[in-house]
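Sulfotransferase: structure, please.
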Amino acid sequence: MPCLDDGDNSRRGLTSVLELRRVPLWSLGPLRSVRKVKVISFLLGLTLTFLIMASYILTWDKKGLMLTLSPFHLRTIVNPSSTLSHNLSSTKDYANIKLLVKCITSKLEFSPRKLPPLKDIVNTDSHLFSVIPRQFLPNIKSPCWYEELSGKTKVDPYSKNLYAVRSKSFRTVCDYLRKHFQEHLYHSDDNKQYRLRCLPYFYIIGQPKCGTTDLFHRLLLHPEVKFTTMKEPHWWTRKRFGIIHLKDGLLERFPVEDYLDLFELAAYHIQEGILGNTSGDHSQRHIITGEASASTMWDNQAWSYLYNYQADGEPPFLAQDFIHAVQPNAKIIVMLRDPVERLYSDYLYFNMANKSVEDFDLRVSESLQLFEACLAENSVRSCVYNTSLSNAMTVRLNLGLYIVFLLDWLTVFHRDQILVLQLEDYAANLRLTIHKVFDFLNVGPSSEQTEAALTKRPMSNTRRAADRSLGPMLPSTRDLLREFHQPFNHKLATILDNKAFHWTET
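Here you go.
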């Protein structure tokens, strides 16, 4: 089987793959051996499928193809579960998938991203940039500023917070905050009142199933580190656009003020350090704020919902464009693991019926075919970010292509602002890795008691017993995924100057 771009008749777009997913993607065998009635039935079924698909396509925007349509349209056509009746794991199909992976790896190019102008970023969300100042308070580590309160200062400042509406735990925090709100205001000489606001000093940005939750809980034990009052606010990638769950579409947007409320407890501690206290201890000035949303590194799907972006499928802006625009000195922590193991762990994490190593193998094969079909007509970045393709794949294959995301973060942040950790190192030598994080964040040494708590704390988000019983993935599946990820890992190891990111001995 030739690569998709090696001939006129062999070239298939992603659209054709999605249209015919109920038909095996490889050779159907010599039709001469099939009885005439079966041939006629097959042709009638194929014709009916084509007519149904054409009726959908004719109702869509003439400018777009299925590759660039809104995910809402794609979901009405592609039902991933309906495609799992075809077993692509036979010896013949395995050989074809191996060849397909070689086709993918032969066409990879990591082209640089063109940055959007700052004025375009600001114009996209003028309210965000009107709330956050260009400079922060000196002599404290966290990016904080004083916001002047106007009007009635006794009005409940948290009554309309959308995080509180959807989170019972944060509503409880808000009850505490509103009781102490007045005592934490700053009163100037001209009788004006100010409220301290803070953004994260650092972000743990990804990836899913790479240990971010465990790192979050251990860092919480350090007295100088104050996180948001919920682990994953997902504000930069989802909530600010009005996305709670992608399947629900666009809902009410969470304003930046709601996001800042998540750092209010940290702001209270920092405020005490600014004003001083009876003991003369100003250690609160060194408190750093942080947040940990595993979607921040990769999830830019909101743009397809908002603008139904066309052409190459790349979002016009990325989350890091906005983070860098408001706080160019932010520190970024990335947790990665062997992408092959990450994908299997990700598959096991989601609750679905009939999970098995055979089902995972089938989903991997289908997703590889979809990715290759996209790559035949688009760049690597376009396929990695393409929302329609992401929704069509039945495993999140694109999330393991770490280098594509990391290169895009490096277009806006300096290399020394990004700490990339490996879960395998983290698990093997927890104390050493945690101290590497402390050095990166420039926090003071922890006490012996804190050290003991850090190292003795049980691991978070361990695999469920029912999922452990499935055992490891099939060796053939592992081989396919190893070959697919090899060039991406090689580029990652080169950029990071660390051979461990090849994951050849995991």
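Notes: The first strand starts at residue 144 and ends at 149.
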